[in-house]
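tool_call: predict_structure(chain=1)
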Amino acid sequence: MPVHVAHVTATDTVRLVNSRYRTPLIPHNAESVVGTDPAMLTAWIDLANATNERVLYEHDQHTVTGAPSPILGVSFGPVLRAAFAHSPGADRGGARFNGPDPGHGAWYASSDTTGAIAEVMHHQGRFLTEARALDQDSVYDRYLADMNGTMVMIIAPEPVLLDADDYSASQQFADKIRADGHPAIHYPSVRSSGDNLACLVPAIVQNIRRDGQVTLQWRNGAWA
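tool_result:
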């Protein structure tokens, strides 16, 4: 398959991250276990975070192999690093351009908020449907970021690489792209009218900033 490469400048790309992943993480049952005493609550949170790979990764105490080195001088560096430590879709065999192995994730972003929401609703909706959840509110932090560099471009319709749910071919494609040293893949979204980016190395993701939150409501087994 021929690889098309072009220089891309993308500003204000959007990534949604569940707000519960902010550190320090507070276990959902903390108060029911230890009550509301501040000292006990702090000790319980510290104990939970001591074995949480996401938190350990952000503080460079993880056991993930192949993970990028600490990212210095970058706003929201821990958020960026976490995207590569915890491979998106690991419980389902990986995401479109990354497999399930820890330490080999990617920073996925959309050209606009509508596209980012569409991606989250698709994947989270599958999870909630399989869990037979009826009602749930999910709050996501909205992160904006800029990318400027040479990227692999998927422009023409590529049914194999852009299959709605089967990522086996696109993961193999991404493995080759990584091996060839390309930092990112720019491709049309299959769930919205915009474009998506899969950043395969942290260095191409710049100027990260948190820009509000998005709340998604799941009601009676469907998105409200």
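agent: The mean pLDDT is 83. Proceeding to next step.
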